[in-house]
Amino acid sequence: MRILVLGAGGYLGGHVVERLRARPGTRVLLGGRSPAADVTADLATVRPTDLARTLAEAAPDAVVNCAGATGGDPVHLAEVNARGAAALCAALREAAPAARLVHLGSAAEYGPGDPGHAVKESAPCAPAGPYGATKLAGTVTVTTSGLDAVVLRVGNPVGAGAPPEGLPGRVAALLAGAPSEPGAELRLGDLSAYRDFVDARDVARAAELAATVTGPLPPVLNISGGEARSVRELVHGLADTAGFPGRIVEADGGSARSANVSWQCSDITAARRHLGWRPVHSFGDSLTDLWAAHRPARAPERVAAP
Prior knowledge:
seven-stranded parallel sheet, two-stranded parallel ribbon, 10 helices
């Protein structure tokens, strides 16, 4: 089986590639902006006709689209998350209409949730900002494309390679550079928001299943931990994992998204039913994997001269 992973050099794309490469009988094709990629394409700018020619040569049985932008101005977000999905769908319809498309969406498409309630895929979407809105536009394009396609609406992924644009990666980087002294302080914004965290390796396993399972799939499946945890729990848990001896200080304010979306939790029943998927990595596993990728290398111990 030939599976093309677009955004293969990114955070989740890297985990998907690693997972698929371990699958017997699978040829993994790397797609992205790098000239060294098997399929070189920038979905934000590529012409669909040019991409179609490239896809025809690659002849994938399935495509996993991990390409996306989480930060930047609204124009950049729209170019990557909305325009990119449209260009890919147009190219696949022309060059590989039988290939299954697995597109990574985001729980941010739902917008604010109701505390204590897990949202199902059938819930109305009301994204609270440009990121969620552009991801929703991509989802609509994929689900109405007429292709054999499924959108995996991912919660807040945690694990090795987490980018600094997101809170887990940013906090891990700050901890890696923080002084190891009892009086040290890590100053952050308000940490009271609740998010549905999911291990990046579990996301990769869901993408593998969605790309390879036989038979039709629902247009959208939630992929998350299925449990809301406070951002404060993540930060303090990561600090404990890192052995940080100082204090976590919540300064006034915080991100606009946290202020607008104080609660998110996804119902993952459908993913269990249609993919046989459930998260297998614990929250502690995720924090350990995230910190292991950021932990400063120990300096070699000095050896006394004879």
